[in-house]
Write a structure and sequence with these properties.
GlnE, elongated, mainly alpha, ligase activity, nucleotidyltransferase, single chain, 2 helices
């Protein structure tokens, strides 16, 4: 998924860190969060 996003976004400002799209940025945190939600959802019924 990350490779598809990089191909779509391109390399606009490679000399600067992109807090949203670069490795370790917000997008990675969102992916990890969604994974954990799916992983542990069955243990926490609401």
């Amino acid at each position: 998924m990350r490779e598809k996003m990089r191909a779509h976004l391109g390399n606009k400002h490679r000399d600067r860190f992109d807090i949203k799209a670069d490795e370790g940025g917000i997008t990675d945190i969102e992916f990890i969060t969604q994974y954990l939600v799916l992983r542990y959802a069955h243990e926490n019924r609401s």
